[in-house]
């Protein structure tokens, strides 16, 4: 059970076959920090998404995960863990493609 007073960690990753995320939280158990899993989510990519590049897949993964986990994460601080620097720069893109622009809006 998550402790709503503690920050969350959202791990995301994408591959050629699917996207997935893990929502975790560090809690203190017996005076030691323990990272526990709250939930795992995943899905196969759709045929139209198969044309996306690696960076777009990772951004898609973030937007999809936020949509699924909105009920838990909305209004709370969380740390995003990803191996893709494009996800980190998504909000700063000056002229993103149309679907990336929609994703910027969702993330904000």
Automatic annotation (TrEMBL):
Residues 3-108 form the Reverse transcriptase RNase H-like domain. One of its GO terms (molecular function) is endonuclease activity. SUPFAM superfamilies: DNA/RNA polymerases. It comes from the Eukaryota. Keywords: Endonuclease, Hydrolase, Nuclease, Nucleotidyltransferase, RNA-directed DNA polymerase, Transferase. This is Reverse transcriptase RNase H-like domain-containing protein.
